[in-house]
Amino acid sequence: MGKYVLKRVILLVPTLLIILIAVFSLMRMVPGSPVLALLEGEEDVTQQRIWEVEEEMGFHDPIVVQFGRYMKGIISGDWGTSYFNDQPVFSNMTAVWEPTLLITAYATIITVVIAIPVGIFCATHRNSVLDYIISTLSTITMVIPGFIMGLLLCYFFGFKLGWFPAIGYTYISEGGLGKALWSVTLPSFALGLHHVASLARYTRSSMLDVLGQDYIRTARAKGLSLRKVYYKHALKNTLSIVATTIAGSIAGMLGGAAVTEKVFNIRGMGTLAVDSLSRRDYSQEQAIVLFMAFIFLAIDLLMDIMYKALDPRIEYE
To answer: What mean pLDDT is reported for the chain?
Structure first.
């Protein structure tokens, strides 16, 4: 197991390098200039003034020099300073990352707790009335955009019924973990329900594939109960496949957090990312994307370790 994990960690190095190059390059391909956005409030901005600020910010250096400076900062732990509030980008992120990470974690739990049992039930009751009903509801849920789902939940469960807070976020330091979770219940469901549908369908499909394998038929022929066949033999191999979908869902949730935060008026990482992109705040946007990439790669590594634990035959050549 240790050798396997070491190989996976080594394989992350070129992946991280590609991500760094992509983030740095794509930010400079976005139309607009951070200097123009920075000087927007000033009167009588001349071309000379723009040139001076660009020179001061290092934009006149060759692109290779700029990238080298960026890499040096990443390696040394200095991810840069925001162009617009002159604060370290990490300080800006730590001020808002709590709601985003909490919503994503909560939505992931909702997705896994609901989707996997539903998918297993549909697979073990294939072509039943409930299977058709659940499959239809899953399709409907999948095609509803996340912001529409958020608005519906906000209206019915927030404003009409008053069961949950409709807008805003209560930080853990202010009200404790319980109140923080309570305040993000609706955005977490809005973010997670779409992934519940896709994961349930994927679990159903994977479970049906496993139930058709020879060793499952052999287990049933030996007289094992359906419960043991489903949950002891079939489920283990199904989960090793479904884990990939879960990892992809987490990445999708992190990416979709911006829309959900806007709907529920929560300032988190997604909102900061959108604001930074609109202002062409290269340093801040690069730091956010890189931080999200680190999270996803860590999750991907954990998924691979889980694969190995579930199926020791897996090896990297």
So the answer is: 79
